[in-house]
Amino acid sequence: MKTINKIQGILALSLFAFLASAQSDKVSIKFAPLALVDEVSMPTIQGGIEVKLSNRISWYNEVGFKYRKCVNETSDTPFVDSRGYKLKTEVRYHLKGIKVGIYKEPATGYYVGANAFYINDYHNTMVNYSEQTAKSVIKQDAFGVHKQVFGINLLIGYQNAIYKNFLIDIYAGVGVRMRVVNTVNKEFNKDTDSLCQTIDFNVLGIRDYVDAAGGTSVVPSITGGVRLCYRF
What we know:
Low-confidence stretches: 19-24, 98-104
Distance between the termini: 34 Å
Strand content: over 45%
Helix content: 10-25%
Strand order of the largest sheet: 1-2-3-4-7-8-9-11
Largest sheet: 8 strands, antiparallel, barrel
Number of helices: 2
Number of domains: 1
Shape: elongated
Order of helices and strands: HEEEEEEEEEEHE
Structural class: mainly beta
CATH class: Mainly Beta
Protein backbone atom coordinates (compact mmCIF):
# COMPACT_ATOMS: atom_id res chain seq x y z
CA MET A 1 0.00 0.00 0.00
CA LYS A 2 2.92 2.37 0.69
CA THR A 3 4.12 1.87 -2.88
CA ILE A 4 0.66 2.62 -4.29
CA ASN A 5 0.41 5.77 -2.15
CA LYS A 6 3.79 6.96 -3.44
CA ILE A 7 2.73 6.36 -7.03
CA GLN A 8 -0.53 8.24 -6.45
CA GLY A 9 1.42 11.16 -5.02
CA ILE A 10 3.86 11.24 -7.94
CA LEU A 11 1.03 11.10 -10.47
CA ALA A 12 -0.90 13.85 -8.71
CA LEU A 13 2.17 16.09 -8.71
CA SER A 14 2.84 15.32 -12.36
CA LEU A 15 -0.71 16.22 -13.37
CA PHE A 16 -0.53 19.45 -11.35
CA ALA A 17 2.75 20.35 -13.05
CA PHE A 18 1.19 19.76 -16.47
CA LEU A 19 -1.81 21.94 -15.68
CA ALA A 20 0.30 24.66 -14.12
CA SER A 21 2.83 24.91 -16.94
CA ALA A 22 0.74 24.23 -20.04
CA GLN A 23 -1.26 26.90 -21.82
CA SER A 24 -5.02 26.44 -21.47
CA ASP A 25 -5.56 25.63 -25.18
CA LYS A 26 -2.99 22.82 -25.08
CA VAL A 27 -4.53 20.55 -22.42
CA SER A 28 -7.25 17.89 -22.62
CA ILE A 29 -8.48 15.70 -19.79
CA LYS A 30 -9.86 12.26 -20.69
CA PHE A 31 -11.96 9.53 -19.13
CA ALA A 32 -12.07 5.88 -20.25
CA PRO A 33 -15.64 4.59 -19.62
CA LEU A 34 -14.98 1.05 -20.93
CA ALA A 35 -12.31 0.57 -18.25
CA LEU A 36 -15.13 0.43 -15.70
CA VAL A 37 -16.22 -2.96 -17.10
CA ASP A 38 -12.84 -4.37 -18.16
CA GLU A 39 -13.02 -7.99 -16.97
CA VAL A 40 -10.16 -9.13 -19.23
CA SER A 41 -7.61 -7.12 -17.28
CA MET A 42 -9.36 -5.55 -14.27
CA PRO A 43 -12.10 -2.93 -13.80
CA THR A 44 -10.67 0.50 -13.08
CA ILE A 45 -11.64 4.13 -12.73
CA GLN A 46 -9.30 5.44 -15.39
CA GLY A 47 -8.44 8.76 -16.95
CA GLY A 48 -5.58 10.92 -18.05
CA ILE A 49 -4.32 14.17 -19.49
CA GLU A 50 -3.07 15.04 -22.99
CA VAL A 51 -0.70 17.96 -23.57
CA LYS A 52 0.01 19.35 -27.04
CA LEU A 53 3.76 19.69 -27.53
CA SER A 54 3.34 21.15 -31.02
CA ASN A 55 0.68 21.44 -33.72
CA ARG A 56 1.22 17.77 -34.58
CA ILE A 57 2.68 16.06 -31.50
CA SER A 58 1.03 15.47 -28.15
CA TRP A 59 1.90 13.53 -25.00
CA TYR A 60 -0.76 11.57 -23.15
CA ASN A 61 -0.49 10.05 -19.65
CA GLU A 62 -3.14 7.84 -18.05
CA VAL A 63 -3.71 6.15 -14.70
CA GLY A 64 -6.41 3.79 -13.46
CA PHE A 65 -7.19 2.33 -10.04
CA LYS A 66 -9.07 -0.91 -9.43
CA TYR A 67 -12.37 -0.13 -7.72
CA ARG A 68 -14.02 -3.57 -7.49
CA LYS A 69 -13.37 -7.28 -7.93
CA CYS A 70 -13.54 -8.94 -11.35
CA VAL A 71 -16.48 -11.25 -11.99
CA ASN A 72 -14.24 -14.34 -11.87
CA GLU A 73 -12.78 -13.52 -8.45
CA THR A 74 -14.82 -16.36 -6.97
CA SER A 75 -12.53 -17.50 -4.17
CA ASP A 76 -14.11 -17.35 -0.71
CA THR A 77 -10.68 -17.23 0.91
CA PRO A 78 -8.78 -13.92 0.51
CA PHE A 79 -5.13 -14.89 0.20
CA VAL A 80 -4.27 -11.37 -1.03
CA ASP A 81 -6.06 -8.01 -0.87
CA SER A 82 -7.88 -7.38 -4.16
CA ARG A 83 -6.33 -4.19 -5.53
CA GLY A 84 -4.40 -2.86 -8.50
CA TYR A 85 -3.54 0.01 -10.80
CA LYS A 86 -2.62 0.74 -14.42
CA LEU A 87 -0.16 3.25 -15.84
CA LYS A 88 0.23 4.36 -19.46
CA THR A 89 2.29 6.94 -21.31
CA GLU A 90 1.75 7.68 -24.98
CA VAL A 91 3.19 9.89 -27.72
CA ARG A 92 0.91 10.83 -30.62
CA TYR A 93 1.48 12.32 -34.05
CA HIS A 94 -1.68 14.00 -35.34
CA LEU A 95 -2.29 13.89 -39.08
CA LYS A 96 -3.91 16.66 -41.14
CA GLY A 97 -6.61 18.37 -39.08
CA ILE A 98 -10.27 18.19 -40.06
CA LYS A 99 -12.64 21.14 -40.12
CA VAL A 100 -14.53 21.93 -36.94
CA GLY A 101 -16.83 24.82 -37.79
CA ILE A 102 -14.71 27.26 -39.78
CA TYR A 103 -11.48 26.34 -37.99
CA LYS A 104 -8.95 23.56 -38.31
CA GLU A 105 -7.84 21.89 -35.08
CA PRO A 106 -4.50 19.99 -35.28
CA ALA A 107 -5.49 17.88 -32.26
CA THR A 108 -8.58 16.47 -33.98
CA GLY A 109 -8.79 13.93 -36.77
CA TYR A 110 -6.63 10.85 -37.25
CA TYR A 111 -3.42 10.19 -35.35
CA VAL A 112 -0.77 7.50 -34.99
CA GLY A 113 1.16 6.83 -31.83
CA ALA A 114 3.03 4.50 -29.54
CA ASN A 115 2.56 3.78 -25.87
CA ALA A 116 4.15 1.92 -23.01
CA PHE A 117 2.00 0.52 -20.20
CA TYR A 118 2.22 -1.26 -16.86
CA ILE A 119 -0.47 -3.20 -14.97
CA ASN A 120 -0.17 -4.31 -11.34
CA ASP A 121 -3.03 -6.54 -10.18
CA TYR A 122 -3.66 -8.48 -6.96
CA HIS A 123 -6.68 -10.80 -6.92
CA ASN A 124 -7.99 -14.13 -5.69
CA THR A 125 -9.36 -16.86 -7.92
CA MET A 126 -10.49 -20.48 -7.96
CA VAL A 127 -10.12 -23.15 -10.68
CA ASN A 128 -11.34 -26.69 -11.19
CA TYR A 129 -8.83 -29.32 -12.25
CA SER A 130 -8.12 -33.04 -12.32
CA GLU A 131 -4.90 -34.87 -11.52
CA GLN A 132 -3.24 -37.07 -14.10
CA THR A 133 -3.55 -40.11 -11.84
CA ALA A 134 -7.28 -39.59 -11.19
CA LYS A 135 -8.84 -37.77 -14.14
CA SER A 136 -12.40 -38.53 -13.06
CA VAL A 137 -11.93 -36.70 -9.75
CA ILE A 138 -12.49 -32.95 -10.02
CA LYS A 139 -10.75 -30.78 -7.45
CA GLN A 140 -11.04 -27.09 -6.66
CA ASP A 141 -8.05 -24.90 -6.00
CA ALA A 142 -8.40 -21.40 -4.53
CA PHE A 143 -5.30 -19.19 -4.52
CA GLY A 144 -4.03 -15.63 -4.63
CA VAL A 145 -2.46 -14.01 -7.68
CA HIS A 146 -0.06 -11.12 -8.17
CA LYS A 147 0.10 -10.28 -11.87
CA GLN A 148 2.37 -7.68 -13.46
CA VAL A 149 2.17 -6.80 -17.15
CA PHE A 150 4.70 -4.71 -19.08
CA GLY A 151 3.98 -3.81 -22.72
CA ILE A 152 4.20 -1.51 -25.72
CA ASN A 153 1.71 -0.84 -28.53
CA LEU A 154 1.59 0.91 -31.89
CA LEU A 155 -1.69 2.78 -32.33
CA ILE A 156 -4.01 4.42 -34.78
CA GLY A 157 -6.83 6.60 -33.56
CA TYR A 158 -9.44 9.16 -34.42
CA GLN A 159 -10.34 12.15 -32.26
CA ASN A 160 -13.14 14.57 -33.04
CA ALA A 161 -15.21 17.27 -31.36
CA ILE A 162 -18.79 16.27 -30.52
CA TYR A 163 -19.94 19.46 -28.78
CA LYS A 164 -17.92 22.63 -28.22
CA ASN A 165 -14.95 21.59 -26.05
CA PHE A 166 -16.06 17.96 -25.69
CA LEU A 167 -14.36 15.35 -27.86
CA ILE A 168 -14.44 11.60 -28.41
CA ASP A 169 -11.25 9.60 -28.89
CA ILE A 170 -11.43 6.14 -30.54
CA TYR A 171 -8.28 4.04 -30.90
CA ALA A 172 -6.92 0.56 -31.66
CA GLY A 173 -3.47 -0.94 -31.68
CA VAL A 174 -1.21 -3.96 -31.54
CA GLY A 175 2.03 -4.71 -29.77
CA VAL A 176 3.64 -7.07 -27.31
CA ARG A 177 3.30 -7.67 -23.58
CA MET A 178 5.23 -9.56 -20.94
CA ARG A 179 3.25 -11.14 -18.08
CA VAL A 180 4.83 -11.99 -14.73
CA VAL A 181 2.44 -14.05 -12.58
CA ASN A 182 3.18 -15.13 -9.01
CA THR A 183 0.71 -17.17 -6.95
CA VAL A 184 0.00 -17.73 -3.26
CA ASN A 185 -1.19 -21.11 -1.89
CA LYS A 186 -1.67 -22.71 -5.32
CA GLU A 187 -1.95 -26.51 -5.55
CA PHE A 188 -2.59 -26.87 -9.31
CA ASN A 189 0.48 -28.05 -11.26
CA LYS A 190 0.37 -27.21 -14.97
CA ASP A 191 2.85 -30.01 -15.78
CA THR A 192 0.85 -32.84 -14.21
CA ASP A 193 -2.74 -31.59 -13.82
CA SER A 194 -5.47 -30.74 -16.33
CA LEU A 195 -7.52 -27.58 -15.98
CA CYS A 196 -11.27 -28.05 -16.45
CA GLN A 197 -12.46 -25.55 -19.06
CA THR A 198 -15.14 -25.23 -21.73
CA ILE A 199 -14.18 -26.22 -25.28
CA ASP A 200 -15.52 -22.89 -26.61
CA PHE A 201 -13.42 -19.74 -26.66
CA ASN A 202 -13.78 -18.00 -23.32
CA VAL A 203 -11.88 -14.87 -22.30
CA LEU A 204 -12.33 -15.49 -18.57
CA GLY A 205 -11.22 -19.09 -19.09
CA ILE A 206 -8.00 -17.85 -20.68
CA ARG A 207 -7.49 -15.54 -17.71
CA ASP A 208 -7.95 -18.49 -15.33
CA TYR A 209 -5.38 -20.51 -17.27
CA VAL A 210 -2.82 -17.67 -17.18
CA ASP A 211 -3.33 -17.31 -13.42
CA ALA A 212 -3.06 -21.06 -12.82
CA ALA A 213 -0.01 -21.55 -15.05
CA GLY A 214 1.91 -18.69 -13.41
CA GLY A 215 5.44 -17.74 -14.41
CA THR A 216 6.63 -15.34 -17.11
CA SER A 217 5.33 -15.25 -20.66
CA VAL A 218 5.56 -12.92 -23.67
CA VAL A 219 2.45 -12.68 -25.86
CA PRO A 220 0.95 -10.37 -28.51
CA SER A 221 -0.96 -7.35 -27.26
CA ILE A 222 -4.22 -6.10 -28.77
CA THR A 223 -5.75 -2.90 -27.47
CA GLY A 224 -8.66 -0.63 -28.29
CA GLY A 225 -11.12 1.65 -26.62
CA VAL A 226 -13.01 4.91 -26.38
CA ARG A 227 -12.22 7.98 -24.32
CA LEU A 228 -14.41 10.99 -23.56
CA CYS A 229 -12.44 14.22 -23.53
CA TYR A 230 -12.71 17.84 -22.47
CA ARG A 231 -10.33 20.36 -24.04
CA PHE A 232 -9.50 23.50 -22.09
